[in-house]
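dumping this here before i forget
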Amino acid sequence: MVKGRSRTLLLLVFGLWISTVVVGMTAPSPPANVNSTVSSRPKVVKIGALFTFNSVIGRSAKPAIMAAIEDVNSDTKVLPGIELQVLLHDTNCSGFLGTVEALQLMENEVVAAVGPQSSGIAHIISHVADELNVPLLSFGATDPTLSALQYPFFIRTTQSDYYQMYAIADFVEYNRWREVIAIYVDDDNGRNGVSALGDALSKKRAKISYKAAFPPEASQSDISNLLNEVNLMESRVYVLHVNPDSGLSIFSIAKKLQMMSNGYVWIATDWLPSVLDSIEPANTDTMNVLQGVVAFRHHIPDTDAKKSFVSRLKNLKDKDTPSFNTYAFYAYDSVWLVAHALDVFLNEGGNISFSSDPRLHETKGSLLNLASLRTFDGGEQFRQSILRTNFTGLSGQVEFDTDKNLIHPAYDILNIGGTGSRRIGYWSNHSGLSVLAPETLHTKKSSNTSSTSNQKLYSVIWPGDATTTPKGWVFPNNGKPLRIAVPNRVSYKEFVAKDKNPPGVQGFCIDVFESALNLLPYPVPRQYMLYGNGVRNPNFDDIVDQVAQNNYDAAVGDVTIVTNRTRFVDFTQPFMGSGLVVVVPFKEEKSSPWSFLKPFTAQMWCVTGAFFLFVGTVVWILEHRLNHEFRGKPSKQVITVFWFSLSTMFFAHRENTVSTLGRLVLIIWLFVVLIINSSYTASLTSILTVQQLSSQIEGIDSLVSSTQPIGIQDGSFARKYLIDELHVAESRLVTLKNMQGYIDALQRGPKYGGVVAVVDELPYIEILMSNTDCKFRTVGQEFTKSGWGFAFQRDSPLAVDLSTAILQLSENGDLQKIHDKWLSKKECATNDVDSNKLSLRSFWGLFLMCGVVCVFSLIVFFVRVLCQYTKFSPEPEEGGDEIQPAKYRRTSKTHSFKDLIVFVDKKEKEVKEILREKSRKRRRSKSLDGISNSPT
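structure:
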């Protein structure tokens, strides 16, 4: 940065010196404190124009600027009575000469300067504009670093490349590319534009894999060498950001190098449409070179004013170009912007006056005529007027946002083909990619128009006349195969192992990888490289780390996808489900004499027995008054209750129920008994046929809480997981090298130097159980959920393509066939005895229903009995001849409960007969009273 500032100051000093020598070294300098002032409504106002006349942009801009001056002067509504004059200065594509021309222009006391077209020159002369308070309206400097914060008097009247690079990034994301190569001219515009592209791509999870820069004056051999270099790289998506005057030669060289064929993607920034629009119609040779290129062009609304203006320019006799590009519209609108703002400036009382800058006084003994440069006194007010201006020009709406950029940036997306180009869509910062014109979408208030799901473009014809979207990358042409690390396992070789025959490895994982590669539409040269000494299994974290450090391009094998590994490499879609499980030894256990008690828990047995007695008692109460089978001596009744209750278990009860409530209770209870019997039978059958655990380990929780040794596989991530996540003491972990080590350690057990259980991934354990005739079983559930995948370096496109291929293998059944080929296994049941026990939790609903029915029946029964008892024992009638027997008379409250019990014990038939007799006597007594009380 310091070096750049020194160069800028050096150029500025040289420019001042040249301007002094060439223009006015002999002219007397005006007094330092004397102002050159013009009235508030001058007759003539001068503006400047700085650009390279003989350039693609300059040849279009010059007639547009002159046409704008002519239109402004002929318009009576803008600057009435004032003639707008333009002073043209040619920058000659030179930073030094451009600076000199700018200084010479400023000596003519211009109120604004239109230009320059070059971002490099704009960086330099913006310092001059800021010093002299002269607005600099650039219609061609698109460098995104030309900020109004750094250069207040620099006003960009075209779109910044910041937006163009975001448009390209959206296009890259739309086609699902992950990497691009940027080819650009090594100047301010090229470097800063590519930097903005990198920022835009990073937000789309893509990147610039290589920046290929060449000097502004590069020869064809330099460009050829550069293209040969990028052609050896993986990415086939090239973004070309160069100057319009020399860009076509790059495509010609690329054509000779066969880089314009099938599989390549070329994206050109707005420089290419600028060239093609200027040479329209383009010759056949040029178009043949550009077939399939996608280019971005500033969007200019297709209005009648635009068509009329283009027709007008094409009819000019002294024009230097057969046609005109979009910069002509921006140059035209820049002049009108000055005119509108100047009109407002003068109407608001602004004066066009210039004065000497005290900081530009000549130093003693200096030959530089610094005082010839004058400061525009109303420059700041005029600048504000420009930024507030709002009108509709040929380029669209001319209005500035808070960052002093034109609003509604938009681009046309062109596809070069045949003898011209066709528009495949648009991009705007409001809607993203769309096939609808941006100006029609600005009226929509939907905030989701730029979402990924709404992005749409028409089809593209790619280089080589390809209609399918290129993958965007291939393996480099330098002949280097993919370096694939394969774990050199000493156990479980069904998954991956060394092989004498090519390709040198074999196994389930290798077959899956090879089958997935066969589904890719491009060849993948590869070389398998064994990792490990063959004596013990390698550490899989080390393999992944080697891939991350670029010592290998990929790792293929039984590599588990875990969190700490995904931070350094990219994994494919899992091709094998996995998870850690606990394995313990099993043994056959003979049935116990008390096995019949195991189907139910103790709580279940207790509640079931209590309900048998409860239901029997309820039925006895409900049937006692009606059913002679439930009457008799007390000892007989107790036996009846027990017999009836237990006999319902086998549906063998002999006693019939005659009451409605008793039958209701019995029906519900028999349904409950049916369910309990069925469940008991099924559970007992399972228990009598199941194998029993030989240890007390029931899962990972009981294993962690114990203090006994745990076996793990050598090289597995289980060690780190148990220590870091489950906080198991490292001293408890025993490393087992192979399957035989598993068997020996589990059979010996912790008492004889073995382990109580083994923690390993499910695929390995399935092989272990199959090869040992199910002598070992898993307990509990998988306590991690993961899978095996192929590891690649970060952002490798091959990881994405192989993930799709693995899904295809799974969908068409090939993955299962490979699994059956290598991993056919014997199924081992993993039943747990405790899981077959039935608890009260499974039946409490049945017991609740039965209990509610019993209580309800008892309530109805006792309410009915109380009602009868009330009618059965009335107070004796006064003066009555008949005296109630003493045993039926309630003499006191102390005997009422006993009387009630006696009443309840009576038969229902006897009670009803007594109640009927009482009713007859009561009616007869009432009739006698009526006769005695009648008049004689």
